């Protein structure tokens, strides 16, 4: 990460400016006014920080030209969608009509074509309409990864019903809270997870709700689920549904700003928070990755991530439903089978989150490490300390690291493979994509304001909280937040740079370099002081992880004042 020029770079920049000025001077000749203007411009460029800015501009020009083209294409697509009042269902219907026989979803021996996804989602829609569900209702979905998963919530979306995507690892009070906080009117659960619902069936917010169990391949129409005897066997019910009605008369009235799903994020109180994902937000995320990373129509994406989270369920599945790609799914991530699966399904792109790359890197070397066709991996959370090692061992040509939060309005993406960077924002884009870093107390996350009460922008190399301007009229910069409005309000900063403005507070500490690249540093509150410096726990974890053979480790600050006092006394 470069935050200032070296002496050699500064000297070279000054020499180039001077040489260019001399060349122009000779070309102009002995004309007083042009020579005077040239001298003034030259002195201006040679003063202050301008040589540094000029160096950075020239250095990043090819990158920024490419970014401008990519962003322009994406902006035009999103603008066209906004004009057409595009929703996820409407866009999927267009994709399915063009590619009815193309495989959309792969898992084990299952193959779902786009037409099969459309027909199953139609049956889900018709069935739940017959049960009285309508636009604005919420249904909780607790199901392990399977090809039917997106078909279920897509079918509900055709009615305008919002699906709360429940984490399959939740149990008891956190599970009850997650279902209740979304004001769910019913629960869909897979047979394998029925026991988790049975444990809370008589609790507040759950008692009396209709339960639909999606049975296994072996369950029959007569199957009664021992733990949920009153539940309906949804799989068998859908097999018997004849859906002849024109559902487009319903979903064509749905708005892009309508809620599509709830995706849960961890809360500071320990309880998950239901982030509102609108149609426009889902479209922006699913379509954004396709255009920003230049994915191809024949790409097959390996998605071993949970479908109830934004990475797997919104970014990964979104590229299928909205862009017509194919996704190969896995019920549960396996480090040892990661690239073996990519070979099995002929995947060309793979997704990752968090520590997946580290887990895969710890597996013994084998021929499948490089026998795959994966040219690109994208995701978030790849530690800089293992980035190059991972890409080299597995022969991954491009890493598309990105940054963003499920509920936020600000995202970044690394388009040019810069190691460790989560993305960049060109200087020309800062007006219409207003994201920035502001100073904060790294230990507490408290925003620092100047004497006028406004926030202070960070300089290159200075860590700060990442924020994004909220502009509700623009889909790209809007912020909906959580189902809990009080929780939503806590993430909003007001009067940031001017009276009345609003910004989304990510709560994450990032740092930029001289060239506009952003690097993730830590979460607010996850830093500690050592010898007068703020130290990010994630940075220390990255170093220790490499030393201990890529094993798990956790770093946190403790009070060691007694050691310092002892040293001072002795």
What would your notes on this structure say?
A hairpin with a 7-residue loop joins strand 8 and strand 9 (273-278). The mean pLDDT is 87. Helix 5 (114-130) crosses helix 6. With 570 residues, the protein is of the alpha/beta class. The protein contains 18 helices and 23 strands. The longest helix has 34 residues, at 50-83. Among the domains are: 7-47; 87-288 and 304-312, Rossmann fold; 535-570, no CATH class. The strands form four sheets. It has an eight-stranded mixed sheet with strand order 2-1-11-10-12-13-14-15. The two termini are 40 Å apart. The chain is globular.
Write the layout of secondary structure elements.
Blueprint: H1 7-28, H2 32-46, H3 50-83, H4 88-98, E1 103-107, E2 110-113, H5 114-130, E3 138-142, H6 148-157, E4 162-165, H7 172-181, E5 186-190, H8 194-198, E6 211-214, E7 232-233, H9 234-239, H10 248-251, E8 259-265, E9 273-278, H11 279-292, E10 300-303, H12 310-323, E11 326-329, H13 338-344, E12 349-353, H14 356-361, E13 376-380, H15 384-393, E14 398-404, E15 411-413, E16 423-424, E17 435-438, E18 464-469, H16 485-490, E19 492-494, E20 502-512, E21 517-523, E22 527-530, E23 533-536, H17 537-547, H18 561-569
Parallel strand pairs: 1-11, 3-4, 3-5, 4-8, 5-6, 6-7, 10-11, 10-12, 12-13, 13-14
Antiparallel strand pairs: 1-2, 8-9, 14-15, 16-21, 17-18, 18-20, 19-20, 20-21, 22-23
Helix pairs in contact: 1-2, 1-3, 3-11, 4-5, 5-6, 11-12
